Amino acid sequence: MKEKAVAEVVAREAKEAEARAAKALEEANADRNHLNKVAEDLKVEVQNRVTIIEEVTARAAEAEVWAREAAEAMDSLISSLDKLKETASGCVIMIVGTILDASDNTAAVNELSERAREAGFKVGYARCSSHMNPLYQSKFTDERSGFQGVDTEARLAAAVEAYNNLSISAIEDIDKCLEAEDYVDRLQLLYGDPEEEKEEEIAGSGKGDAGTSGIKEDQVGLRALLFDFLFNVNSRKTYVNFLCTA
Predict the structure, then answer these.
(1) Which residues are in coiled coils (predicted)?
(2) N or C terminus: fewer CB in 10 A for the chain?
(3) What pTM was estimated for this model as a whole?
(4) How far is CA 218 from CA 139, 144, 195, 211, in A?
């Protein structure tokens, strides 16, 4: 009886141990499945992070390329702007020089200078005579000045008035071109067709310079300078905008 009781106890303990082992195995399997799931989730998360890093790296590289291209473009624009300012300033100087050297302007300035010299000489001669007359018994007059009876002040005033009302054909051409709204129309008003002008020049040379008889020297000079400047640059529209709207 005792042996049977012992055997039953051993059998019961064995079953309990087996049950505990089965439960432990089940829990271990559950933990393993959970760990596997966590590992898969971590793999997915890592892959997502890797993808994000690769995308960010690609965008950073692209941004660097854009930044480099933008810097190069800015340097190019600054260089072009400096050249534009330099060339435009040179063009303005040439235009001003051409206008100042125009035959009409030169003649008016010469006339004004001559009349001012005459008026100054007569006034100076009269002042000198007024200083010398108290020292001598004989009286000095303006008889030998060369301007006795000549109203030099009136002649000077007339020269000043003529200079103020001076009309230069080159300036009139520029004013006329400014009336057009379109840049191309402005150019067409200021310049003729080079081929047509060349043909007219050739035809005029065969007729005793008849082809240029109606164009003044200052007008030809201004057109030649502006034509050479405007039509030999790539950014023609920018230069024309500067000249015709400044």
Answers:
(1) 7-87
(2) N
(3) 0.39
(4) 51, 40, 21, 16
Say if CB 166 and CB 111 are below 8 A apart.
no
CA distance 59 to 115: 77
SS3 at position 159: helix
Percent of the chain having pLDDT more than 90?
10
237 token code pair: 């529209």
Q: How many CA atoms lie within 13 Å of 219's alpha carbon, on the beta-carbon side?
A: 16
For residues 42 and 56, state if they share a domain: yes
CB atoms within 10 A of CB 190: 22
Count, in order, helices (H) and strands (E) of the chain: 8, 0
Task: Indicate the number of domains in the chain.
Answer: 3
Q: Which 3 state secondary structure label does DSSP give 216? A: coil
Which tens digit of pLDDT belongs to each residue from 141-152? 666 666 677 788
Determine which helix (DSSP H) or strand (DSSP E) holds 101, and give its type and residue range: none
Distant-in-sequence, close-in-space partners of 126: CB < 8 Å, separation ≥ 6: 142, 145
CA–CA separation, 63 and 70 (whole Å): 10
Same domain, 145 and 109: yes
